[in-house]
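The protein record quoted in full:
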Amino acid sequence: MTRRIQPSLIGAGALLLAALLETTAFGQFGAPGGQSTGSQVNQLPLSGRTGESGSVNAAQSPIAGTTTSVNTINPSIQAAGPYTGSELSTSKMPFSGKLSLREAVARGLEYNLGSVGLTLALRQSHGQTLVARSALMPNVSGSLSETVQQIDLRAEGLRISSPFPGIGIPSIVGPFNYFDLRARLTQTVADLTAWNNYRSARETLHANEFFAQDSKDLVVLAVGGAYLQVIAARARVESAKAQLETANALYQQTAQQRSVGLLAQIDVNKSQVQMLTQKQRLASLQNDLAKQKINLARLTGLPPNDRYELSDDVPFAEAPVADEEGAVTQALTQRPDIKAAQAQIRAAERSVAAARAERLPSLSLNADYGAIGETPSQSHGTFSAAGTLRIPIWQGGRTEGDIEQANAAAAQRRAELEDLRSRVESEVRNAFLDLQTATSQVEVARQNRDVTRETLTLTRQRFDAGITDSVEVSQAQSSVASAELDYINSVFAHNVAKLSLARAAGGSAESLPRFLKLQ
């Protein structure tokens, strides 16, 4: 019968500190009973982009103009994955019912799932770095055991005969007991594989820190784009209301003129159709505004409804950046995602070094000290210490396989960095192109709006004088509505282009007020 009691010890001087990662087993009385098998490289995934989750992109696509045959650019901010959602923020950050752009961005940075997820991934990476470091740190454990034992010698294969006739030697020994109180220490003295594993984990941690910073730029792009979309949708609704009032006034005027016999019924019907069309258009735009507000609420951690108001308006303003080459240089040197890719290359190179170090000897120390005896008062201290030099000779090709995998991952990281540099430069140059086009669009749309407004005023004067009919007034009114829509879209496109340029150049969270001229 054997009874063992092995609780963890927390002794003087915090001797028993950490769980044992890789331990040399000890025999019953403290003698070494096993040896370390050596460290193995921690292989990185082939691609450094496998951990990417979600995306936010600025897209500009040409669409047919509403007033001319010339195409205009149609901006959109496309968010995917966790960047489309958030955790509820109102319990931690009270909401007044009016949302400014600064507050929307602040809520997004704090509660959008894209930023939250990468912040938690950073914490996880920090924990993995501590695990890798633990292979280089002292590992201490302790045990307390009490053994009560009775042995059958015959069952153990011992058959001892007494040399004296009539005197037998019993085959059953015991019961007897002893206790053992012991602390054990293992320490890696020299292991280049473990050391390079730790350095690789540390570089991976730095990469994740940069990815977390980059996620903030993506959140600013997503939230800022959604806020601008709500502003544009609200402007379309206000424009549609004004057009509906004008159409309704024209309808009332034609109805009055019909009642006194100045117009035919067909003219009244045409003005009524125009009024009803504007009413239907207004309902559709109001529906779009409500959906855009719900989308913005989802990005910023607000309750998913449209029962709030925007406190900011972002009118047209010139972009503060005019040097395209300077913006490209700034992006290539300051973008967090480029710095993250560079850190991933360093991590992959450390992983290659760790794989190659599997061929080198490693040195470790195993020691224990404790007291053993029948009772605590009769115990005596015992100890053992062993240094182990492990020399790998043949491991079945494992080292060569680890080196090949690590080299492949490193090559992939370098290729991804080159691709990322090209992508960043293209993002900056595309943003400048969109900005130039949108600036021109705004000027043309402004002039077109002024001309169509003047044309509508003159046409109504002609209608009041009986020179023209309601058809020409309806056509002039439609031109005004289209011109208003073009101007709203062009201002939105210009603001989105500035927002995209802030993201492309890097540090959009800090540069947003400067790009959008926020007070």
In short: The domain at 47-110+209-363+402-516 is CATH 1.20.1600.10 (Outer membrane efflux proteins (OEP)). Residues 192-259 form the longest helix (68 residues). The CA atoms of residues 237 and 287 lie 10 Å apart. The chain has nine helices and eight strands.
